[in-house]
Please model this.
Amino acid sequence: MQEYETLRQLVEAAADDVEKASGGNKAAGTRVRKSMQEIKSAAQVVRQKILESRSTPAAQG
Model:
């Protein structure tokens, strides 16, 4: 599922900034907050795709 791969890549991309923000880097904290919004949106898309696949007749067979 491409949407999940996108979500995974966003999380991996934020990892360095999360570490820097934990060390007190304020700019990295700002980048993490922005990344978290993108991750939230991507997670919602994955959730919607999963719900769509559950409701299709092909997935029930």
The two ends are 19 Å apart (CA to CA). The first helix runs from residue 2 to 22. The chain has three helices and no strands.
